[in-house]
Amino acid sequence: ITVNAVHNQKQLVGSSNPAKTRDLSEIDPNAMAKNKYTPPEEKNAQFWYDLANEEIAKRVNLPQADKRKAKNVIMFLGDGMSLTTVAAARILKGQLKGNTGEEDSLSFEKFPHTGLSRTYCSNAQVPDSACTATAYLCGVKTNIVALGITAAVNFNNCSGSEDPANHVSSIAAWAQAADKSTGIVTTTTLTHASPSGAYAHTTNRFFESDTDIVTYGEGQNDPAYCTDIATQLITQEPGKNFDVMLGGGMGKFLPKSMEDKFGTQGERSDGVNLLSKWQSLHPNGVLAYNRNQLLNVKAKKGHKLIGLFNSGVMDFHKMADASQKPTLEEMTQKAIEVASQNENGYFLFIEGGLVDYGNHFNVPQLGLDEVLELSKAVQKAVDMTNPNETLIVVTSDHAHPLSISGYPGRGTDILGLNQHDTDVNGVKYATLNYAVGMEQYLDENGQRVDLTEKIKEPFFQYPSYIDGLIGVHSGDDVGIFATGPQSHLFSGMMQQSTIPHLMAYAACIGDGPTLCD
């Protein structure tokens, strides 16, 4: 399985051509963003600010037992971590211990407060990771594929996304305005949709480098007039102020004339080495490219850190070279060490981004393992921080149509066949199934085949009902799990765009209502 092949624009967005094909080069790379209606009132950021203020007021008007202010805020995201994915990962965790599994818990499932997040975006019933990142980091819902801008900007309209009047700021910027440290950690790339929500303003999440603007701009966008995401991270606020940035994606920062540390050609066409530019802006800054370098970094006040551990997205944990690639838990530990040097506190965004990739591949063996890695990272954060000072929020951006089906008995292998039921033809079926995917496992008569042996293969693609080029997202609500100061506010049902406003309320940052008012 090639991780880099999962989530480029062509594979994610689907085809506007109904003809069945396995040739991903024939997909319209921008189909996801086209021909979708946006309610006019939702194009104004104030609509979402007002809605968030209503949801905050509803919560703070209840009896308040917790008066603690959050000095630090850590937001964890399991990308594509549906509630079914959480449940399956919990069962797998228990079964790996030799138990039945259903009774086990992930670290964040032990948090005292839980809620549900509504994930739709301004023009999308089922969202992507860009419009959702704008919601849970900037507090405003926007159009699908867009980052850090209002829904007033049409798809691939560079002039609109460059106009500051259309920009919405993130909780990372709010934290910086309060003199807090900030940082992003991800198992994808630093310019991927989720972490980019903390700093970028762009009409198209796939404009990660200047070359990508030409590739995905449909001939109407020029890199000279449209700032790519990598450039925004290194040269513009709030990205250029981040104290720590850990993940993959080195190629987006280097020119094509250079090889990166992993033997891969850089991707930039403008000849700019953004890592050299970052180093010149931060002479005391440290760059790390492998696990040992990262673990040996000594956190010092005022010394910033970039860690880039792959040319593209990082490897699945189960497939990574453990001697070279840090785990999410290790990156989390280092990020907290660096950010903790600031006596004013910090905001960190930490993403387990490959949960989504495992689900897109219809390979839950990999996706569920990524949830277990996220769970370890969350536990590390809990262990390293003071619960009276640090608010920790764990959530997801969107769901995937993964089901746990039938009536399997307790302890049934969550990655195996349901041993207690069959289809109408007497053939056992997998406990885990997807709605849309690449394999239906039908014989020449359209009947399901026996998967008893095939399901044991290490990268077995699980069955799906609808034949698709790749697995898709779903529109389910996703979970929110919170602990620490003001964590009780994250209970109940809320708009995804309310999440950063609640974190800001707890930390007394930003321009909205706060605990300190």
UniProtKB/TrEMBL annotation:
<keyword id="KW-0378">Hydrolase</keyword>
<keyword id="KW-0472">Membrane</keyword>
<dbReference type="Pfam" id="PF00245">
    <property type="entry name" value="Alk_phosphatase"/>
</dbReference>
<feature type="active site" description="Phosphoserine intermediate">
    <location>
        <position position="129"/>
    </location>
</feature>
<feature type="binding site">
    <location>
        <position position="79"/>
    </location>
    <ligand>
        <name>Zn(2+)</name>
    </ligand>
</feature>
<feature type="binding site">
    <location>
        <position position="194"/>
    </location>
    <ligand>
        <name>Mg(2+)</name>
    </ligand>
</feature>
<feature type="compositionally biased region" description="Polar residues">
    <location>
        <begin position="1"/>
        <end position="19"/>
    </location>
</feature>
<feature type="binding site">
    <location>
        <position position="79"/>
    </location>
    <ligand>
        <name>Mg(2+)</name>
    </ligand>
</feature>
<keyword id="KW-0460">Magnesium</keyword>
<dbReference type="InterPro" id="IPR001952">
    <property type="entry name" value="Alkaline_phosphatase"/>
</dbReference>
<dbReference type="GO" id="GO:0098552">
    <property type="term" value="C:side of membrane"/>
</dbReference>
<keyword id="KW-0479">Metal-binding</keyword>
<keyword id="KW-0325">Glycoprotein</keyword>
<dbReference type="GO" id="GO:0004035">
    <property type="term" value="F:alkaline phosphatase activity"/>
</dbReference>
<dbReference type="InterPro" id="IPR018299">
    <property type="entry name" value="Alkaline_phosphatase_AS"/>
</dbReference>
<feature type="binding site">
    <location>
        <position position="351"/>
    </location>
    <ligand>
        <name>Mg(2+)</name>
    </ligand>
</feature>
<feature type="binding site">
    <location>
        <position position="397"/>
    </location>
    <ligand>
        <name>Zn(2+)</name>
    </ligand>
</feature>
<feature type="binding site">
    <location>
        <position position="360"/>
    </location>
    <ligand>
        <name>Zn(2+)</name>
    </ligand>
</feature>
<keyword id="KW-0449">Lipoprotein</keyword>
<keyword id="KW-0862">Zinc</keyword>
<keyword id="KW-1003">Cell membrane</keyword>
<feature type="binding site">
    <location>
        <position position="192"/>
    </location>
    <ligand>
        <name>Mg(2+)</name>
    </ligand>
</feature>
<keyword id="KW-0336">GPI-anchor</keyword>
<feature type="binding site">
    <location>
        <position position="473"/>
    </location>
    <ligand>
        <name>Zn(2+)</name>
    </ligand>
</feature>
<comment type="similarity">
    <text>Belongs to the alkaline phosphatase family.</text>
</comment>
<feature type="binding site">
    <location>
        <position position="398"/>
    </location>
    <ligand>
        <name>Zn(2+)</name>
    </ligand>
</feature>
<dbReference type="GO" id="GO:0005886">
    <property type="term" value="C:plasma membrane"/>
</dbReference>
<feature type="binding site">
    <location>
        <position position="356"/>
    </location>
    <ligand>
        <name>Zn(2+)</name>
    </ligand>
</feature>
<dbReference type="InterPro" id="IPR017850">
    <property type="entry name" value="Alkaline_phosphatase_core_sf"/>
</dbReference>
<protein>
    <recommendedName>
        <fullName>Alkaline phosphatase</fullName>
        <ecNumber>3.1.3.1</ecNumber>
    </recommendedName>
</protein>
<dbReference type="GO" id="GO:0046872">
    <property type="term" value="F:metal ion binding"/>
</dbReference>
<feature type="region of interest" description="Disordered">
    <location>
        <begin position="1"/>
        <end position="39"/>
    </location>
</feature>
